[in-house]
Amino acid sequence: MALSTATRQQTITQLKQIPMDLLIIGGGITGAGVAIQAAASGIKTGLIEMQDFAEGTSSRSTKLVHGGIRYLKTFDVGVVSDTVKERAVVQGIAPHIPRPFPMLMPIYAEPEATYDMFSVKIAMDLYDQLAGVDGTQYANYTIDKKEVLQREPGLKSTNLLGGGVYLDFVNNDARLVIENIKEAAELGALVASRVAAVGVLHDDTGRAIGIKAKDTLSGEVFEIHAKVVINTTGPWVDKLRAVDDKLDHQPMLRPTKGVHLVIDAAKLSVPQPTYFDSGVHDGRMIFVVPREGKTYFGTTDTDFTGDYAHPTVTQADTDYLLAAINNRYPKANITLADIEASWVGLRPLIAANGSSDYNGGGANAGKVSDASFDHLIQTVNDYEDQQATRAEVEQAISKLKTAHAEDTLKPSQVSRGSSLETEADGMVTLSGGKITDYRKMAAGALALIRQILAEQFDQNVKDIDSKKLQVSGGHFDPTNVEDTLKFYTRIAQDAGIPEADAADLANRFGSNTGRVVTYAGAGVVPGLSLKETISLRYSVNEEMTLTPVDYLLRRTNAVLFHAESLAQLKQPVIDEMAQLLDWDADTKAAMTTQLDQTIAESQLTALKGTVTA
């Protein structure tokens, strides 16, 4: 089923008239993951999102499907095991999106450093065992100081010991969401963006039986009824719970804000994603990632209590990241003026957890005592020699003691996790987690939903193997990605698209490339390339793209990674969307203003204006 303005209106009509088995509130990665699995299971599924799909947290990540090697600094082997296994699953169900790209971790001899050269090798070996990449082309290795500086001559050499290289994956977070959404719709789910949940409906016994919804485009308020309602609203979980008068409203989440900054690769070029301690001994680590001729770096990790729908980058955020990047790359001299784009997002951390995965769990969770460390290493070595069992390794991990007062580490101090709860009125709340874990989180939720439907409604739902449930655009062999994408590139080339543009389309749309190419028959939009023309038309007609910001920020990465082309793209995109969506002059002007404001925020125009020459 294509997703467009027309189908959106049809969907809203159906949601008003047809009771759902399951109603999902929230169209980020978590809700999208639940929707595709529920629809594939034969559950009558509805999904509403108050903004554009992925407009919140799910388009504002570090854009990696990473294995969480940082968790091994406090030996949270269970978390890493789950994460690296899920990373491989995501690559299998969305093979055109995550791509392997080995990560470089420079190691410095500094107080409170996460790793030294010995411990990083131990961590990477364990990481590879958990990921199942031992003996492959992606197996980890260490390099000495000289080779680190050969790869990245701009890195600070003072106190540099060497580095570790291990497997990680780059990701397009917003496209992962929309491809899950599209597949869910193809499987029968009724999905609509820009529909907000403004209240929770209850029957005479106080059980949640649906929600009061508002179409934010038309202003219409209506009811949607469902046997099961699930809250997958990310950082907004508590805000939805707050409009449910049957619940206590103690906060479940502690959102933190993460900021990333983008510069041109000519200012700072890195050959591969790079990951290091911030250098200011605060327990944080910084990513530096090459992408599309740019380099981006982040992230901050600060508590957030402002406008969830509109977090902004502050002077303190840029000061922190610029200090960190210029410390590690002292000759780069990156300034605020060099920032071409930025993004900021909220992480939906579980309030009960001591801290996020970016700061390693708070004051007591960084160092372990020598005795605990030595015992663990010996046990791991014995395990590798088949002289110890997995249970003995897990026991050694559980007995790790901190060097501060020898307190046993609490799991909530180590990493961020997810939470699946059935509320007092029966509404299900799925919160927390990481983008890498979305499929597994959804599978857990589906198991609970199947149980509820069976026990309370005598409705049996078929089980599915969600590890094999491929998303839209991903319907091809995940073990043969490069050759398959070359095939789709040729399809686009045969339509008259230059090779580089054709490859970009194939990488963006995967097995949907042939469908995208059908839009070439309508001619080229003045001011746009054929590639951009057909991408835009497909996106408006089949990806529920309703605004220029939807297209230029989330369906593509133009705002983030192609600032230099925005001036050329902006007006033709607005003009074509105005024609496709039948905008009047006032709507077109409002859409132009919205896009201009989004670009200005991304480019930090206001902050730059406060800097005196």
TrEMBL record:
InterPro entries: DAO_C (IPR031656), DAO_C_sf (IPR038299), FAD-dep_OxRdtase (IPR006076), FAD/NAD-bd_sf (IPR036188), G3P_DH_FAD-dep (IPR000447). It holds the Pfam family DAO. Keywords: FAD, Flavoprotein, Glycerol metabolism, Oxidoreductase. Residues 21-353 form the FAD dependent oxidoreductase domain. One of its GO terms (molecular function) is glycerol-3-phosphate oxidase activity. Its EC number is 1.1.3.21. This is Alpha-glycerophosphate oxidase. Its cofactor is FAD. It catalyses: sn-glycerol 3-phosphate + O2 = dihydroxyacetone phosphate + H2O2. PROSITE patterns: FAD_G3PDH_1. Gene3D superfamilies: Alpha-glycerophosphate oxidase, cap domain, D-Amino Acid Oxidase, subunit A, domain 2, FAD/NAD(P)-binding domain. It is an enzyme of class 1 (oxidoreductase). GO terms for biological process: glycerol metabolic process; glycerol-3-phosphate catabolic process.
